[in-house]
Amino acid sequence: MSKRYEVRLAGSGGQGLVLGGVILAEAASIFDGKNATQSQSYGPESRGGASKSEVIISEGEIDYPKATHIDLLLLMTEAAAEKYLKDVPETALVVADLDLVPTAIPDKLRSVKIPITRLARETVGKEFVANIVALGALQELTGIVSFESLKKAVLARVPKGTEELNLKALSVGQEAAREYDGKNIPH
Amino acid sequence: MSDEATKPSGTVKFLSGNEACMEGAIAAGCRFFAGYPISPSSEIAEKMSGRLPKLGGKFIQMEDEIASMGAIIGASLAGQKTMTATSGPGFSLMQENLGFAMMAEVPCVVINVMRGGPSTGNPTGPSQSDVMQCRWGTHGDHPAIALSPSTIREVFDTTVACFNFAEMMRTPVVLAMDEITAHMREKIVIPPAAEIALINRRKPALQAGETYYPYEAGEDLVPPMMNFGEGARYHVTGLDHDRTGFPSAAAEVQESLHRRLVDKIERHLEKLLLFEHHRTEDAEVLVVAYGSTARSAKRAVEEARAKGVKAGLFRPITLYPIPEKQIEAAAAHAKRVVVPEMNLGQYKLEVERILGKGPAITGVNRVNGEPIAPSLILSAILGD
Amino acid sequence: MSMDYFQYLRKEKMPHIWCPGCGHGTIMKSILRALDKLKWNQDDVVVVSGIGCSSRTPGYLDFNTLHTTHGRALAFATGIKVANPKLHVIVVSGDGDAMAIGGNHFIHACRRNIEITLIVFNNNIYGMTGGQASPTTFTGFKGTTAPYGAIEQPFNVCSMAQAAGATFVARALDLDAVAMDRLIVQAMQNKGFSVVDAWSQCTTYFGRPNKWGDASDMMEHYKALTYNVRLSDKMTEEEKAGKYPVGVLHQATRPEFCAEYDKLIERVRPVEK
Asked: Pick from C10, C107, C268: which is nearest to B54 by CB?
């Protein structure tokens, strides 16, 4: 069995986390040549309320497509933090929106808080690209997909006419995460 | 017409099961879809409504699932390869006309994205609780073919197989997907059209002036089929009928009709059986699992092997007819058999029937809208 | 009338199952005269039915014929027409078949305005199953499931059809076969969904329990219950009260489903290179 890398993107409906998961998985599978699956919460739960998107990435065949041992957790709402911090393993990296997740992340976890939504709104100019800002940050922090592949995956999925905006969002996320450089991630 | 619109090329895509199902149907030549919205299958109808008119095909949203099933039978008689897609409550409504299609031998494909039941149940949670309904859902003795895929590529392939089996056997074929398979996304290489083997209904080879008997079968027990509008002017009914298609109350006619409808499946059994053996050759603990549960099972088998337990997985892709001999062979060395499924033991009943008083058989069952995690199956394999 | 009915009949399927005095044979012959007049190729005509006495009609007719499940004929017929719009699709149905179990399909076929002709063999009773009350059984009339007389209000087939969007709606009586021929021809020529509410007497199960006499007595009763829609203007409301108009009751022009779908294909289909 190959090592699985499990990602959970959690927040609320409208934050674009399902699309975010699809883009991440496409970057890994179509453009990086690995295997990836993406699944999501679905139905009444996904309308307005909580939203969850899971991505499993592996060099080998992916059997069980749901997360069992999270490696990377993105939290975009306080409710998501309450729900998903409980069972996240100590080896996981937690990335949270600085403004939207006031809860302190437990010290035993490696975690980073980035003003993802604020950056999308103020630096990029559109709040709806927060998911892409987040992807830029996640890529920078983990390298689980290559930046080039992520860029291609973003361009393949976003609506025509928004390419520039989304590429900017990706860079803004990447830069915001750069100060942590993957090693100095605070506990 | 552009290639993009007419056929999927050997392209890499990242698709959900429902999307792959649509691609498979188009690749198989489906040009008529009738359906009614229902979670968790609706994306199939949505995607068909977008794609079919681009290909000159037809999509129609009917007033309910009863009508959807009727419409695809009518359209098939008019010469099209046809499909509908639904979930449990809609599948229940389709049973009446599904029986008609079996009786009148009209090829068509029904996609059933299984959700929790009975009744409205759990509209968005995964389930495998329609397994028995796929076999025995409509009244009377009848033939049944039902497939259940585990991967996105397999959704594509089995959808094509459903059309091939339907055309080859002149009978409706069901694809029983679970919600996990329907909604998860995975990379899929869609094969070039030239690499996809397609089967079309066999036309009769009539001499000039020779009468067409729509229900006269030869050795293979499947009567050749002409479409409405092709000049044969024959009669189709859901009543017991003779070779002419007209109702008959003759005891021997009824007996031979019902036996042939069931026997034709047996006659072509080997061609209909799709399955996967995974490390079963020396398996002392055999897991029999299908659909997305088989993915959990495969992982549990690998983890058990890592612990030194000789575990194996037999995965029926064709649920019905049942690969009975293959299950027996897979269980040849088995002391125990584990049957995990998202229902309360429907396929386990079949496994028990096939393996009789041989190995001890246990189920791992969940009906809570959650998938069966590999750890649960591993515990059962280890006998915890 | 010198036409040869047998060119359209499956002679070997005779005699039919209908009781002496039943009006269904009259309607069937009227359908054949209409088809003879239209000169459609027999191979291009599909006759679809559901379940019931009327629904045995297709078995007697030498066209492409389909005897479906109870109430569902219009659903099957819709599939046939959409899959191959060149086919002329005629649905024969009874009052129970079309208006009770098939009521949902009825209103939606009207709404879609798909080019299909529906002939409702309306005899106000379930004949095949033994005389149970139907959705068109008149209030107070008896059936085997309404032994004290029906307490429900009947459907008016034509009003329903018009309200739901059918573009040709007519009522015909089997006692006036000439008018019925004309109405069925018009229905078949309409580029949209057409409904003919064709009244037929069931002597066995409707006439007998309701003491309406034999077939000719029943025709007198139906005659008394109806009036020619052309005379409507000359009649007082009092004279029309509780009576059913006969003739062409509604005609309209609305987009037809198959034609609209063809336009859709034209609009979205990639241009050939």
From this structure: C268
In a domain, B201, yes or no: no
Give dist(CA A120, CA A135) in Å, integer: 12
Cβ separation C269–B5 shorter than 8 A: yes
pLDDT in tens, chain C (273 residues): 578 999 999 999 999 999 999 999 999 999 999 999 999 999 999 999 999 999 999 999 999 999 999 999 999 999 999 999 999 999 999 999 999 999 999 999 999 999 999 999 999 999 999 999 999 999 999 999 999 999 999 999 999 999 999 999 999 999 999 999 999 999 999 999 999 999 999 999 999 999 999 999 999 999 999 999 999 999 999 999 999 999 999 999 999 999 999 999 999 999 866
Please state whether the peptide bond connecting residue B321 to the residue before it is cis, i.e. omega within 30 degrees of 0.
yes
Q: Complex ipTM, two decimals? A: 0.97
Question: What token pair was written down for B342?
Answer: 């998202």
CATH number of the domain residue A134 falls in? 3.40.920.10
Domain end marker among B195, B220, B236: B195
Domain C19-268 in this protein, CATH class: alpha beta
Distance of CA A125 to the CA centre of its chain: 20
Return the SS3 of C64.
strand
Same domain, B165 and B280: no
Count of the separate structural domains present in chain A:
1
Domain boundary among the residues B135, B167, B195 is at: B195
Calpha distance B39→B89 (Å, rounded):
10
Tell me if B130 sits within 8 A of B116, measured CB to CB.
no
Q: Under a CB-based contact definition with an 8 Å cutoff, are residues B338 and B380 in contact?
A: yes
- Answer yes or no: do B124 and A44 touch at CB < 8 A: yes
Question: What are the angstrom distances between the C-alpha of C140 and each of C49, C126, C128, C152?
Answer: 29, 16, 22, 8
Residue A185 lies in a domain: no
Segments forming the whole domain that contains residue A131: 4-178
Cβ under 8 Å to C: B residues 83-102: 96-97, 100
Contact C195, C161 (CB under 8 A): yes
Question: From chain C, which residues contact B within 8 Å (Cβ)?
Answer: 10, 13, 42-44, 46, 48, 58-59, 62-69, 72, 74-84, 86-87, 104-105, 107-108, 261, 264-265, 268-270, 272-273
Alpha carbon distance A72, C87 (integer Å): 60
Domain count, chain B: 2
Q: How far apart are CA B110 and CA B108, in angstroms?
A: 7
B49 touches A: beta carbon within 8 Å? no
Q: Are residues B157 and B281 in the same domain?
A: no
The Cα B291–Cα B296 span in angstroms is 10
